[in-house]
Structure formats: structure tokens, C-alpha cells
Amino acid sequence: MEASAVLKGQPIYRRARAVGINPNYWYPIFWADQVRSGEVVSAQIWDTSLAVYRDAQGIVHTVEDACPHKGVELHRGEVHGNNLVCPYHGWEFDSQGSCVGIPYFPKEQKLPCAQARTYPTQEAYGIIWVFPGAVELAEQHPLPEVPQYGQPGWFMVRIPGHFQAHFSICNENTMDVFHGFLHKDLQGWYDPKLLNLKQDDHGVAADYQVSYDGFLSKLLGLGKKGSDSATRTVSIRYRYPHYATALESVSSLYLMRLPVGPQETKSFSLLFLKLPLPQWLLSGPLARVLEKVILNTVFIKFLHQDVEMMESEQRNYSIDPKRNYVEVNPAIIALQRVIVGQYENLEKLPKSQQETSKESPIPPSQEVSNGMLV
Ligand code: FES
Ligand SMILES: [Fe+2]
């Protein structure tokens, strides 16, 4: 993407809105149960179109969504056994993307050398992941760790998100604990303070102190007996390009980000709660019903409020990308630095140096009051 080169020397927030992704990471593209055996579907990672199919053995594969013959979208094709067949002339491609059959060729005729690009693909945590970058780096870059997944004592709620906004806007929303005002009708949280902040080339670690005094406090069992109010520490860890956040040992949220395009982003979130409910309800056949109830009665409402803000921010950015803004949370500035650095360093560094990391002290020389830049 050319834009970031043009924007060098501009404020960091403006550069963050214009950058593309570093493709050398695993990105989530579907919940595992969205792609059934024998099914092929389309997906998009930062304007790269993909055809994703699950073969007869249940293994998921990803190929570029363009047939090497004439460019027809392969996601319109059919799955035959372990192969994908183009809908136009019926050319058949194996899981390595090689053409292994043309229906109108006599058996003895040599097949042309036609190769579709394939992408490393894996399933973990009930999510299908694709590595859109340099294939040789896929094994060096592990998936995010989700230690609570499948562990007894934790109740998992899957939260899908879809936003018409650049991924930097979405990521800033997750890092921004100071927007409790938006959720006041839902009795979210109040009185946030930024306690600690660290940044390096790969991510941002921020700890906030937050108070709860309502529905969330009750749901999570935060308050002491006879009181619903509680003050806790929320730890937010952004490790490019995903998030792991924790409310002490009470809940954890793993937010996996999929940048679809310059103004479209998805998220696949796994929220783990310790609910004060009986075990038969948390792990029995009613668990999936309970997941839907918690999702729809609580967290989707929060998410909808956030979506409105993010999309509103994007609309004004799109109308006037040169408008100036005032950011006072050093954690947001740190996040913008990581997002910009991951993209710009990818362009200028040779591959061997892409893994280097250097500490950058945050906050810089600015005076800080209550965790805010002044
Ligand atoms: S375009 Fe795919 S087989 Fe011809
Ligand atoms: Fe929010």
C-alpha cells in the first residue's frame, strides 16, 4: 500500500489509518464450524481473495481465489474428495494447488503446469487460521496462546465482530479503557486509570485500574458481600496483530483481528468467564444455550455501541483524512507506533531482520497525570 510512504513525517495517528498489514502472522478467517466437509467458501485478508475448503477428510485448505486457467473465482467451485474443482472448465487442483486433472483431456495427455498459490492453514481454538505472508515464516510465528481454552472452570463465549473501519480504529477501541462513558447505560465500568505501559516493536502492554458498580460486577461476582462495587486491574496485552486481555483472574478476552480491507475489519473473540452458576449448567447440554443468552443479552449490546463509534470515526476519516485530532492516552499512541512500525519495517528491513525487537520507553518525555498525557 503506497499511502504510508506518502505519510511519513505526518502525525502517528494519520499514518496508522493509512498502513496495510504485516502479512507474516496467522490471521483468523472463520469459526471452524462455519466450513463443513465438502464445502468451499470465500474469504478476504487485506484485499487478498481466498477460497477456503474442507476436504473429505475434514482438513481445511486455502488457495488463492483465482483459477490458474482463466482466473475464475475458485470459491465458486466444488470439492471432489481432497481436491478443489473450478466451476468453469472443471480443472481439478490438489491441496498443494497443482492441477491434477482436466476433464476433457484424454487420460494419456500431459497436463499443463498450472499452479494455484496455497496458504498455510490450521485449526485451533475452534477457529480457522491462515498465514498470508512468506510461507517459510509460518512455522516461526506461532498462534496466540489461549491457555483457558477447553479448561474446566472457565465458561467460553464466542463473540463475532464485523466493522466497516480500518483495523487501527478497531484496535484502538480495544486498548481504550477510557470510553466507559459510551457504555454507561449498560452499567459497564467507571473511573479508569492507566497504571503501567510498555511497548516494543511487537506489542503494547497496558494495565488499567477500573471500577465496577452494576450489572457487570454482579455477573462476574466482583463485589464483596453486600456491595456490588469493586476496583480491579485490567491487563491489556496487544501482541501484533491480536489481543489478550484479563480482568485479574476473573475473566479473559482473546480478541483475534482480521483486517479484511482498508475500511473493513472482523474479529473473532473468545471470552472466558468464571460464572457463579452450577456446573451442570456451565458444561452440560445447556452450555451452548447459555453462551447465546450471555452473548445476546450482555456483550452484543456493548459491541453494538462500540461498532457505532468505530464506524463513525472511519466515516469522518474517509471524508477528510487530513483533519487533526488530539489523543491524550499514551497507550493509544504506543499502539499506533506498533501498527505503523510493523508495516513500515516490513517494507524496509530484509527478512533476516524482521524479527528484531527494541524497547521504546512509554510514555516519552510528556508529563503524565492520571495516566493521561497533558
Ligand atoms: S477458468 Fe478454471 S477451469 Fe477454466
Ligand atoms: Fe467498548
UniProtKB/TrEMBL annotation:
The segments labelled Disordered in the record are 350-374
This protein's record includes keyword tRNA processing: no
Tell me one GO molecular function of this protein.
dioxygenase activity
> Sorted alphabetically, which Gene3D superfamilies does this protein's record hold?
2.20.25.10, 2.20.25.680, Naphthalene 1,2-dioxygenase Alpha Subunit, Chain A, domain 1
Per UniProt, which keywords does this protein have? Answer: 2Fe-2S, Dioxygenase, Iron, Iron-sulfur, Metal-binding, Oxidoreductase
Per the UniProt entry, the signal peptide is: none
What are the Rieske domain coordinates in residue numbering?
Answer: 26-130
The keyword Manganese is annotated on this UniProt entry: no
PANTHER family (alphabetical): 3-CHLOROBENZOATE-3,4-DIOXYGENASE (PTHR21266:SF57), IRON-SULFUR DOMAIN CONTAINING PROTEIN (PTHR21266)
How is this protein named in the record? Aromatic ring-hydroxylating dioxygenase subunit alpha
